[in-house]
Amino acid sequence: MKVVKVSQAAEEPxxxxxxxxxVTIQPIVGTDLSKRFRIAQVNFGKGVxxxxxxxTIEQILIITEGEGIVATENEELTVVPGDIIFIPAGExxxxxxxxxxxxxxxxxxxxxxxxxxxxx
Length: 120
Hints:
By secondary structure, this protein is mainly β. The protein has a single domain, classed as Jelly Rolls, CATH 2.60.120. The protein is built from no helices and eleven strands. The chain is globular, with a radius of gyration of 14 Å.
């Protein structure tokens, strides 16, 4: 057994065309601990989000801080700490911070999942 504290996980800057501005990532569980899933916290500044994208395997988001938005082409939901979002494989979506709040979520996904950016 291993206990991992998010507060002690190193923050790594992440710049990517997938995000509207840089974010930080805190890896929690990677392929070093599990071959079946990855867990990391993503930290967004106010108003920062990722662009529409999809994954080849389902994704779970667990909201840990701030107020955010999770959206598909058909709906946009405000989410807060404690909310858990299940995103089916192939669903076009985005998620990020509201204009007035920084935002963090943990993601749980397969290391085999591929992400496709669907928005420029």
